[in-house]
Request: fold
Amino acid sequence: MKPAAFDYLRPETLDQAAFAIAEAGDEGRILAGGQSLVAMLNMRLARPSVLVDLMHAPEAKTIDQTSDGLRIGAAVRQADLEKWAGLASAAPLLAKTLPWIGHSQTRARGTVVGSIAHADPSAELPLTLAALNGQVHLRRGKSRRVLPARDFFLGMMLTDKGPDEIIEAVTFPTLPALSGTAFREVGPPQGRFRHRRRLGHRDRSACAAGYRRGERHAPCAGLGRTGCGR
Reply:
């Protein structure tokens, strides 16, 4: 199948994108990496009348170390973040997560924020953001709000983002001194499209954690699991 007809908009700034999606409302969808959305369009599981492409807004492609943590713009591809020189020290759990996402080809197209916006319960990036209770930076026109991950994710492929909002960026928080992190995933071969299953293959399952080293009873910074529905 091929997508139903839609209007394609290619704004060159986040301002233009924010106002375009606000005007489109329920009829609009944001396109970033497109690794999930394009498949849904092809199967007509999504039928927007307006598609707003963020990938031509330069300010959406920034990676910034802030006082709150590592802020990643809406159009930052997973492969570009994976190669970013300061990643292991700025966000060690994120650095351990990225190699587990699909294949290098999908990471070369997929964006960090796009995966988080899609909120697939078996995806690695929403898991990592939730485990660290990072922040999601939302925008509607000129109005902005910031949600912690625990309030942003509402359920399977369900978030608190309104149809007239865009996600400008996400922030993965800086862990305190003496912190440690771990990420582990088991299951079928990486990169299989989530809706395709073969007889005998189980869902992938992953666990992400942040913790304090040297203290036997110190509370975890965060612990999350995904793909554990059965």
